[in-house]
Structure formats: C-alpha cells, structure tokens
Amino acid sequence: MPQQTDPVLLDHLAALFAARDRDDMAPTIGALLEVLAEHPDDPHVLYEVGGAYDTAGEEETAAGYYERALDAGLAGDTLRRCLLQYGSTLRNLGRFDESLAALDRALTLFPSSESVRVWHALSLHAAGRSDAAVAELMEVAADHIRSPDLLRYEAALRGNAAYLRSL
User: Fold this and answer.
1) Dihedral of CA 115/119/122/127: which sign?
2) How far apart are CA 16 and CA 91, in angstroms?
3) Mean pLDDT per segment of 10 residues, for the chain of length 167 residues?
4) If you count Cβ atoms within 10 Å of the first and of the last residue's Cβ in the chain, which end, N or C, has fewer?
C-alpha cells in the first residue's frame, strides 16, 4: 500500500530539488541524506536521494535507493518518475533486461506517458532491439505530433511502425 508523505516534507524535498546544482550535487546529496536520517523509510525521500545520486553519475548507488523507494510504496506520478529513472539507470549500467522490465511496468501503469515511452525506446535500442525502438518513437510521434505535415502521413507512419515491430 502506498505510504503517505507529510506535505511539509514534500515541500522541503521540492525546495532541495529546486536548489540543486547539477554540476555539484554534493550539497544536495548531503542535505537529502540528513532528511533521510530523519525519515529512513519514506519512499519519496528514498526516491529523491536516488535521483540526486543519479544526477551525480553514481548509478549503482542510485539504483539501490530507487529499489528501496519502490519497495517502500510509491504511487502516482512519483512512481512513474521513479520507474522511468530506475529503468534509465539500469540501462546506463548495462542491465538491459532489468531496464526494460522496469519500463514495461511503467508502461503498464502509465500507458499514456510520453516520457516513459521515449525512455522505453531508448532501452530497446540499447538492448539491440533498434527496430522496436524506432517503431515506438514513430508511434509517439504519430500520437503526439499533430502538425498538418505529419498528419498527412499518419497512416504510413503507423504502418511502418507496425512493420518494424513485427521484425
């Protein structure tokens, strides 16, 4: 069952995220670890710590925090973001099957998420399934780029995507 996080704590986490410096994550990680010491089982705190380590390029450490956050009961948009980031981290670690499993779970739970679909395509490509990756990106384009120029070719776009998926 998803755990409820105190709204004040969520605001504090959001402020730490907003103040981060992507080029120097050490202060953000330090601040988040202090929060984690006070809230060691909170899924949102675990997720944010994982994200900070991920941004710092410490994927192995990030993966562990993402796993703990998922086990602790994330829900809603934070669950979507965690699954996407965890899948991306696993891809960066060369753990392609696990990456696709995390992103497949995200696709099942959040089928209309463009970001999940794009990162899923990236993991398909990394796993050597480039035809399926291109198909997924073509489908995202057909679903979300509603320009007259592309709409003219929507049937062909979808047909080519279906063909690539069948390979």
Assistant:
1) negative
2) 26
3) 80 95 97 97 97 98 98 96 98 98 98 97 98 97 95 97 96
4) N
